[in-house]
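Bug #77: duplicate submission created two jobs. Keeping one. Sequence:
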Amino acid sequence: MFRRRKELVGVDVGSYAVKMVQLTEGKSGHKLENLGMALLPHEAVSDGRIAQPEIVADVLRKLAKNLKIKPGPIAAAVSGYEVMIKKIEMPTMTEEELGVRLRQEIVQYVPYQLDEVNVDYEILDVSKSRAKFMDVLLVAAKKEAVSSYVGMLRTAGFDPVVVDVDYFALSNAFEATYGVFPDENIALMDIGASKTTITIVQAGRPLFTRDLTFGGHSITHRIATEFETSMENAERIKLGLASDSVDRARLEKAFVETLAEWGTDVKRALDYFFRHSPEAKLHKIFLSGGSARVPGLEKFLQAELGIPAEVCNPLLHLEVDPARFEAAYLEQIGPQMTIGLGLALRRAGDK
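Kept job's structure:
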């Protein structure tokens, strides 16, 4: 009863890089023990699926070795592409009765047979729209995808004792950064290399989740087209590592055109949410992910959507040894470590 639950290493596998975060208990909260990232070869992870598991496992193994993290228990997350999250209404019943009923009626809520998915659920509250009904959060993940992902992690020498969903890892990181969730609706928007995850949350409960097929690679592609150069050189230009001879006006054009496409996709997703929740309002957008620091993104989204936006850096709220981690490094890398940090907060046995 009084034993401290063992910390887990958070492992976030994206299409661009593998990230690892290790926390310990500090004097006044969580302490950053270790973190790092390693780039993945192009197409090793494609469309949220691990296309080359042996290569990804090797990168993960080498990253852990460089960070001096011993193989052991970890928390990881499957991508939203392989997961369906849905809020449903069910007649009021016990949790045990709910489990039996969902197993019998799962095809009514997800487009798969029961033997094709791993299913979890949580009773949220009494339904506000119907008497003697309750709101239930239903999560279904394809068994094949989860098995493949777990197999890759074990090939790398790790024991995935917690397999979470990226949506919930984002929520964990937000709560650790800002404290309790506000009562008003907020959007957590994680922008990766090829996928953007949007979660609208109220008081810690997800109201809406959506994956959008854009990310940092969209800008790289646009730059490569604009300057008729390779993707590798376009990435260098995007990161400001190329020659000063780059035409700044053309580069700005590539950024602006790409952000306009992003804005259209985000608007479309939010319009869908508002159509189904016409009385709802969105008070703020919190940005994370490797592409959250695209120059001008916060101001652009605020202008396009009329909603304040802020970059979330969960590392700035941790106890940190300044002799081990430079403040400038944590400031730069923090947003893309958000999901990894949310996973590192998990413990074996968590629901």
